[in-house]
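REVIEWER CHECKLIST
Item 1: Sequence provided? yes
Item 2: Single chain? yes
Item 3: Sequence as submitted:
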Amino acid sequence: MHYATQSTSPCLAIVKGDSDSVSCLGSGRIDETLPPKYRSPFSFETAHFHVRNQDLGFEVTRFLFGAQRQYTESFDVYGSKTSFEWQLIEGDEPVLHVGGEKVEKTKVPDYAKYLPEPIQRFTTKGVYDADEHQHLSFAQGGGHGGSHPHLANEFLMSVVEGRPSFPDVYQSVNWTMAGICAHESAMRGGEIVKIPDFRS
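Item 4: Structure as written out by the authors:
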């Protein structure tokens, strides 16, 4: 859970919030040669986060080593009128739950149209060759679902326009600290750990 920004940031970006506290449990054990390198003995960790100043929480599970699970980076969102669940199997489609009983598969749109034309193609294709250096996060879209060109463009435009980027420095620190504090909680047997607020 040390590096959980790919899991925590979508959840916090959707609600425009910061994590306030976390309780995390570790489960299973990885190969005995790995804990000294990764400073974690767990096959996976499951964390429950509270969103600061909101009546909201979210859960993140990270499978690391020693768990038979297809590689995925995903999140689900549950609302009172519509819910979204990421597909469990690569190549399948996400599911929308609408009005309680209606369930339908959906396609996640490509938002390349919001980028400058020269980098639009990178939301769906990576820059690595398909064999030797390919990684599934790039095969799924130009880096974590096509997000890399959007993140790079947003950062550069914030510099050009003289404004804070999204995520800004405080969001970035909070989204990073969320994972670090979650792992600390797991190492303490699930104890609730407060996430520092660097805005104050």
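Item 5: Key structural point noted by reviewer: The chain has a mean pLDDT of 86.
Item 6: Recommendation: ____
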